[in-house]
Design a protein that fits this description.
The structure holds 2 protein chains of 2 kinds.
Chain A: H1 8-18, E1 25-41, E2 44-62, E3 65-71, H2 76-89, H3 124-141, E4 145-163, E5 168-186, E6 189-199, H4 208-226, E7 229-230, E8 234-240, H5 247-257, H6 259-263, E9 284-287, E10 308-313, E11 316-317, H7 324-330, E12 338-339, E13 348-349, E14 353-356, H8 363-368, E15 372-385, E16 390-402, E17 405-411, E18 414-418, H9 419-424, E19 426-429, E20 434-442, E21 445-453, E22 456-464
Parallel strand pairs in A: 7-17, 8-15, 14-21
Antiparallel strand pairs in A: 1-2, 1-4, 2-3, 4-5, 5-6, 8-22, 9-10, 9-14, 10-11, 12-13, 15-16, 16-17, 16-18, 18-22, 19-22, 20-21
Helix pairs in contact in A: 1-2, 3-4
Chain B: H1 2-14, E1 19-35, E2 38-56, E3 59-65, H2 70-84, H3 110-113, H4 117-134, E4 138-157, E5 162-180, E6 183-193, H5 201-214, E7 224-230, H6 232-245, H7 248-252, E8 272-276, E9 297-302, E10 305-306, H8 313-319, E11 327-328, E12 337-338, E13 343-346, E14 349-350, H9 352-357, E15 361-369, H10 371-374, E16 381-392, E17 395-408, H11 409-414, E18 416-420, E19 424-426, E20 431-433, E21 436-444
Parallel strand pairs in B: 7-15, 13-20, 14-18
Antiparallel strand pairs in B: 1-2, 1-4, 2-3, 4-5, 5-6, 7-21, 8-9, 8-13, 9-10, 11-12, 15-16, 16-17, 17-21, 18-21, 19-20
Helix pairs in contact in B: 1-2, 4-5
Classes of the chains: A alpha+beta, B alpha+beta.
Chain lengths: ~475, ~450
């Protein structure tokens, strides 16, 4: 049975079956996903892989407990089995839940993230030409470019969500992404450079010129870093670049604002709404509704409309990021942050596009105001322990700042610190706001996210590395 | 599932595939999370799907589907052939040939199938309770998870490779937060087996709690060059990064720091490292890999000298050698790629207490944050944040925090001077390793 064959009666019956032995919320999530991935390495298009998966999950919650069953055979008998599993797991729960479920009209909002050229209407051949364009551009940057990996991925995900509140939502999401990873080599030194372009858009996002740009930028980073010296270590002022620099806020603070960490007291931000957690120039928000952005959707994966949520305003903590379950526990409205990787995953609170808002300095002014420091132009990725707020980031592209000027490229540096300390130490923010796309992993689930940030300065932060 | 596999092979041949390989799986799994001695989440799952790889004179195309209806399978074949038409042919991309009978590997325990949800929940509750009761400074157990999986693999290709096996395993995991004077530290532990009786939830819970409590009171230290001990958890995460550089894929594509170093000293003279796809206790053991090649043990480093690399069919063809059975697949949705199976470090063991007693200034590292992001598998350079315990005059002397450990993989391997007697399996990446004792590492402090 395909997603278009699922009717209202089947969804209503499944929800009723799930609630047969009690519970306070039941939901059916049906997903149809087609995807295509192409990869070029060694100047060869070597992998071309496409998939089509369909499946459904039945979720039942009772107070703080969640029961979840999924199947990749979406038909009446298998949905009945899944509903029976979650209902059966609830043994011993007091009282039966609502037995009559009437779904409202399906909500299907189109046009919020317009797709002009559906990728499935474009030949795989044309897509493979993008990889070659990215590869040639990367290799033309320098003879030191030794290897280029260029990847293209597209996915179309159609979902139906129906729940015991009578809500019935349909969403249709298309995402495209191009990534380039380049290795440059000189005198036994190897360095890598990475660049990406991803949006919730159709094929209008990409052409050979944009693909070439992605390849060229990755190559330039790798080649620049060949001349890098070992980074000095120790505490110093750090200027974070725009775009990828937003990974800092995502890792160091964003995860601690997700309501599952808050509910378990496993976040330094728990119980601190209204308190000062950042310097007064910091305004931060999560926004899953930005048009065509990589981390955007019309609804989240629980059928809640996405929204702009201000999390920090003028340095004060304003709001956490909620899914339905944690919102209900906390007695607040969900914020459209209930996300899941697929029907095979329980929705949990997740960021969408998370940003520190722009300020009124300019990037050159920030560098000029720094007599000696570290310029982290792009970050490789990082990890954080939300419980303590301690984090570490790899720096993909870093430079020394001397006498108000960006000088020597630096390699092997990491940034180490604590989320709240860093937020409190932000003393300048520029206006060159930029969003970059990435994938974020949590609890074994990977979802598309964006990080948005302008160039900003942290008064003092620990830089780790191999130098002295 | 062989019915589906054979039907896809037939359709592929009928529609013009020269060589075809079909990989199908069906699986069931359970995952239970408990919190404060109650079930927080229970997930029951059934999964199945099929993947088709076609070979058209060296051009390879792949497609997969979870829908096994006749129409979906026809579509699958068309998409695989369509994808093959855009890849660049390479004469080394050939259909794997039959390699004789696979080894006998016992990776299925029928006992696990009889486990009830009550037993599974009880096991998770015991792990959480052990953590909560271990020390009054334990604030909460953020995650206590029990999970198991049962998967059947079916593989056949048009050159005559054909096989199937069933594998199952189960594990429990606890992630503990401990607090003292406003400082929060975390600790985790696992217990792994093929049936519930093999798991030790109490040991898992109390070890996770102990690892968190050990770090309480941690202080910043100045930068120093010191001897460090990476405990098995930390060693395993470094070995995970290292293993990608030991694949022939990385070597042939110019992104391995081990390229051209075969026969040369790359690690301390006591260090042995092997990939063992048929180890009886290995979670990644199987009779054959994702291409049907029999799994086996492959020596990578012996006496500190690099012995060779890991191969799948393609990289083996290119190098003119045989596949080592390392064409690994994540699931039916992924192409096989060269990856390690179970990584095993061996060599002469020194009691870990003796090692600590012999160190004047050092750090016992129990947690490394950012190994994935902070270690560059291509250049080998890394710089990661660590937590651990200071060693002074042969004794453990309290926790350290906000320090970084920086070096490069080859220097680190060469400076391994001892291996602990505490070897254990770390499920994340399936690594069997003791503590690694390394001299002269830069520690960046405050």
């Amino acid at each position: 049975m395909g997603i278009d064959d699922i009717d209202r009666d089947l969804l209503e019956a499944t929800i009723r079956r799930a609630l047969a032995r009690g519970g306070d919320f039941a939901e059916v999530f049906v997903e149809d996903r087609t995807s295509l991935g192409l990869k070029l390495e060694d100047s060869r298009v070597e992998d071309a892989s496409g998939g089509h998966e369909i499946g459904a999950a039945v979720r039942l919650t009772s107070a703080e407990r969640t029961y979840y069953a999924y199947t990749d055979e979406v038909d009446e008998p298998n949905l009945a089995v899944a509903a029976g599993i979650v209902a059966g797991a609830l043994r011993g729960a007091a009282g039966a839940g609502p037995t009559i479920v009437r779904l409202g009209n399906v909500r299907s909002v189109t046009g919020k993230h317009p797709i002009f050229v559906p990728p499935e209407t474009v030949t795989v051949r044309l897509k493979s030409e993008l990889l070659r364009a990215g590869n040639e551009a990367a290799r033309s940057v320098s003879d030191d470019v030794g290897q280029a990996i260029v990847g293209y991925s597209e996915a179309r995900q159609r979902i139906l969500i129906a729940n015991s509140l009578g809500e019935f939502v349909h969403d249709d999401r298309t995402r495209l992404r191009l990534v380039a990873s380049v290795i440059a080599r000189r005198d036994g030194v190897m360095q890598t450079g990475f660049e990406t372009l991803g949006k919730s858009m159709g094929f209008e996002l990409l052409d050979e010129a944009t693909a070439a740009e992605v390849g060229r930028r990755a190559a330039e980073k790798a080649v620049t870093m060949l001349a890098a010296k070992p980074s000095p270590v120790g505490p110093m002022p750090v200027v974070m670049g725009n775009g990828f620099g937003g990974t800092l806020f995502h890792e160091a603070c964003g995860h601690g604002l997700e309501a599952d960490s808050i509910a378990k007291g496993a976040s330094i931000y728990a119980g601190r709404i209204g308190e000062v957690v950042a310097s007064p120039i910091v305004n931060a928000f999560d926004d899953g509704s930005i048009t065509n952005e990589w981390g955007s959707g019309t609804f989240d994966d629980e059928g809640v409309p996405t929204q702009l949520t201000v999390v920090i305003e003028g340095g004060r903590l304003r709001q956490f990021l909620y899914d339905r379950l944690r919102a209900r526990q906390a007695g607040v409205a969900p914020t459209g942050n209930g996300r899941r990787q697929s029907f095979r995953h329980v929705p949990i609170p997740r960021m969408t596009t998370t940003c520190i808002g722009p300020g009124d300095s300019d990037p050159e002014e920030i560098i000029a105001a720094t007599s000696r420091g570290f310029y982290a132009k792009s970050l490789a990725g990082g990890q954080v322990e939300p419980a303590s707020g301690n984090f570490v980031f790899g720096v993909a592209e870093g430079y020394l700042i001397e006498n108000g000027k960006v000088t020597t490229p630096l390699r092997g540096a990491t940034l180490v610190g604590n989320g709240i300390d860093v937020l409190n130490n932000i003393d300048m923010i520029a206006g060159d706001f930029l969003v970059k796309s990435g994938m974020c992993g949590k609890d074994g689930q990977s979802v598309p996210v964006g990080t948005g940030q302008a160039t900003l300065r942290i008064k003092e932060m620990t830089v780790g590395g191999t130098g002295s | 599932m062989f019915g589906v596999v054979d039907e896809v092979l037939r359709l592929a041949r009928q529609r013009g595939a020269r060589g075809a390989e079909v990989y199908a799986e069906q699986a069931t799994s359970r995952r239970i999370k408990v919190y404060r001695q109650r079930v927080e989440e229970l997930t029951a799952a059934r999964r199945k799907g099929v993947g088709l790889r076609v070979f058209q004179s060296g051009a390879v195309g792949y497609a997969y589907a979870s829908d096994l209806s006749a129409k979906s399978l026809e579509d699958l074949v068309d998409r695989a052939l369509g994808n093959a038409s855009v890849t660049d042919p390479d004469p080394h991309a050939t259909l794997p040939e039959p390699q004789g009978p696979p080894p006998q590997v016992d990776v299925y325990d029928p006992l696990l199938e009889r486990a009830t949800d009550e037993q599974r929940i009880d096991l998770a509750l015991r792990a959480e309770k052990a953590a909560l009761d271990h020390d009054p400074r334990v604030k909460t157990v953020e995650d206590t998870i029990y999970a198991d999986g049962d998967v059947e693999i079916f593989l056949a290709n048009s050159a005559g490779v054909r096989g199937s096996y069933r594998e199952n395993d189960c594990y429990a995991f606890a992630y503990v937060l401990a607090e003292q004077d406003g400082q929060v530290e975390t600790g985790l532990s696992f217990t792994v087996g093929r049936n519930l009786d093999e798991l030790d939830p109490e040991a898992c819970g109390s070890e996770a709690a102990q690892r968190a409590c050990d770090l309480l009171g941690a202080r910043k230290v100045p930068s120093l060059k010191a001897t460090v001990i990476l405990d098995p958890f930390v060693s395993a995460s470094f070995l995970g990064v290292l293993s990608s550089a030991l694949t022939a894929d990385a070597v042939q594509k110019g992104r391995s720091l081990f390229a051209g170093r075969e026969g040369r000293q790359v690690a301390g003279g006591i260090v042995g490292l092997a990939d063992d796809g048929i180890h009886p206790d290995g979670l990644s053991s199987a009779p054959f890999d994702g291409e049907g090649t029999p799994c086996r043990r492959t020596s990578l480093i012996e006496g500190g000298i690099l012995q060779g690399f890991l191969y799948d069919t393609y990289t083996a063809n290119k190098a003119g050698v045989g596949s080592t059975g390392n064409g690994v697949r994540g699931s039916y949705a992924s192409l096989p790629g060269v990856r390690s199976t179970n990584l095993i470090v061996d060599g002469p063991a020194t009691p870990i207490g003796d090692v600590i007693a012999g160190i004047e200034h050092g750090v016992l590292v129990t947690n490394a944050v950012g190994v994935r992001s902070g270690a560059n598998p291509i250049s080998g350079e890394f710089s990661v944040g660590i937590n651990g315990l200071l060693i002074e005059s042969g004794r453990l002397a309290g926790g350290v925090r906000e320090v970084t450990l920086a070096s490069d993989i080859i220097s680190m391997l060469r400076n391994i001077v001892a291996l602990g007697d505490d070897a254990r399996w770390i499920p994340n990446g399936s690594v069997l390793t003791p503590s690694l004792v390394i001299e002269g590492i830069s520690i960046g402090g405050a």
